[in-house]
Amino acid sequence: MILPIVAYGDPVLRKMGTKVTPDYPDLEKLIVNMKETMHNAQGVGLAAPQIGKSLRLFVIDASPFAEDNELDQEERETLANFKKVFINPKIVKEEGDEWGFNEGCLSIPEVREDVFRKDIITVEYQDEDFKKHKAVYRGLAARVFQHEYDHIEGVLFTDKLSSLKKRLIKKKLDNISRGRVNPGYRMRFPNGKK
Predict the structure, then answer these.
(1) I need a surface site. Which of 36, 41, 123, 189 has the fewest CB within 10 A?
(2) In the chain, where do the E strands start and end?
(3) DSSP codes joined into one string, 45-63
């Protein structure tokens, strides 16, 4: 089922997500719905807060980035197969140089800005069967993970912008929170408008 994506301005996007336990009701269905919602909105990631659930859970499908011919073959292959569910993830280490990339967010449609993040991350997480994993991601895979991880920490990519950039996009953000945007997918706005 395609769920409405929570828009900028909703308090759930600012909450730290709570740990997901194996007895969480209908978790499998929630994950399926999140994947369907993400694909419907043509996103590469979706975190539970973006559908109104303050949980430490997100899904990623970075395969659309694999079509970028400017990336080397190894990174394209990594991204083509980067389709995962992350439950209770934790960034253990961030390293490498910070690099800028033009990011957007399904909760903040029509706003894209350069965000600087570390190139390499080491993470721990559980999959949908609650098996523990440790992994190292780099490049765009690391960036997508970091963006979604920020969501479960109550952080948005716009928080990482300079105060000048924040002032320049303030009107756009106000319009999003008031429901004055039409992204082409279902949204839930703080004023109750859908």
Answers:
(1) 36
(2) 5-6, 45-47, 57-61, 83-105, 108-126, 132-138, 187-188
(3) EEEGGGGT--BSEEEEE-G
Structural element, H or E, at residue 74 = helix 73-80
Residues 106, 154, 136: CA angle, nearest 5 degrees: 80
Average pLDDT score, the chain: 96
Q: How many CA atoms lie within 13 A of 83 on its CB side?
A: 14
Task: List the one residue out of 62, 85, 56, 64 whose CA is nearest residue 151.
Answer: 56
- pLDDT of 36 higher than 80: yes
Say if strands 45-47 and 57-61 run parallel, antiparallel, or are unpaired.
antiparallel
Going by pLDDT thresholds of 50, 70 and 90, the confidence category of residue 68 is confident
Nearest CA-CA partner of 59 in 182, 144, 119, 158: 144
153 is catalytic: no
pTM of the model: 0.96
Distance CA 131, CA 143 (A): 23
Please tell me which residue in 98, 124, 148, 153 is annotated as part of the active site: 148
**Residue 69 confidence (pLDDT):** 83
